[in-house]
Amino acid sequence: MADSYTVRAASIRGVEVLPVNVEVDLSGGIPGMTVVGMADTSIMEARSRIRCALRAAGFDVPRQQITVNLAPGDVRKVGAGFDLPIAAGILAASHQVPLDGFDDAVFVGELALDGRLTAVKGEVAYQLYARQHNLTLVEAADAPRTVLENVERRALSSIGELRKGLRNLSEPNGPTPEERHKVLFDFSDVVAQELAKRAMVIAAVGEHSLLMVGSPGSGKSMLAQRLPSILPKLEGRALEEALLIHSVAGEDLSDLARGERPLRCPHHTVSLAGLVGGGRPVRPGEISLAHQGVLFLDELAEFPTHALQTLRQPLEERCVRIVRAEGAYRFPARFMFLAASNPCPCGNYGDPDRPCTCAPARIERYQEKLGGPLADRIDMVLTIARPDAASIVKGEEGASSSELSETVMRAREFRSWRERKSDGEPRASFRELELSHDASDTLVALAQRMNLTGRSMSRLARIARTIADISEKKTVGAAHVLEAVAYRGTRR
Hints:
Number of strands: 18
CATH class of the largest domain: Alpha Beta
Distance between the termini: 78 Å
Number of domains: 3
């Protein structure tokens, strides 16, 4: 007579969690274990790990034919997190553990040969799945102590603790994300760059993309490092989305758990899969890891052209789509785009104090990287001058992060009030931007003089709208448009 049991599990596909039923059947025949249902190599190797772990924990390995089916059979399952549900299914089918609570639990964890249980990638994804389906998440005891709220969790240090029954298990006792120390950067450290700080505030309020062009040592990287310090803290759904992506990628969650927005700074040698996402299994790239935060590309002109052009679609659609033979993957990618570049290969083109040693043709090729379709999607271009040496020696301080953050928060609150009062969703149309008559005339005159495209006019108007929000003005004035055009910089 055959014994069988079904245990709930889950598989991560991109940043989605797919439900999987682990069906275990014990029947007569030659002793052994067969796993079916499109399992990858790590799952097939689980047969040896499970057999050793069960023996080490004092359980009997059934001397029967063990058939494990991972349903649905048309979806590929990936990861060592299936060790625990398969082992739990075998113990349940062979009546070696109490089954109270099994039907309302989802099991995730990797087994060591001595029976110990270790956490796997995607902790937040599994927690979201358990909360959405009102299930108890049974996982390793070294999983993070707290990440999401309102999730019922039970912890196992080893597979042998299943003898206690799920009701008698405690919650995971792993480290809390808040225990990690981080060095904070403050805008007060940046000397004699008040115009650049003003541009950072405008970008932070309106979520505008910004390109900084300047000589080496002008402070471009310092400014970029401090941008997250003036952005609002992550909370609610935005926080959960960022935690989900970083958890699936196996990144540290300490800073995110405190509400700090991510700052991703990939090197210009990053691969296309590392920037956009990909691999096997498909994982999010730097673009998605910057979701709800900042993506900073230093030395923009050093990035390969094909890598830069892949940014066009995420900047517009706020997501990344990757198509593979097994299907399409979608990763959220709502980020602030921040870039920095030298004006030429030697970095001194246009510097009044240092002569440029680059040939004109080389400068032309270098600056072509900053042009094209991607440049048309960058809202603000700012020239960063090298600060005065006397200001650095004297240790002068300008606006701090706390002061700039207060400005950003006030402007965002005013924008939210204005949008609620207009009784509609904010759109990029000129009517929704509430331009005054003088502002409209100024914008038209600038467009004719500078030969602006429709997209450039819309971008200029949105920046002016943000400046008006900072001034807490319901209507955009001509002065706001004139300040906005100052942040266009040079496109070459």
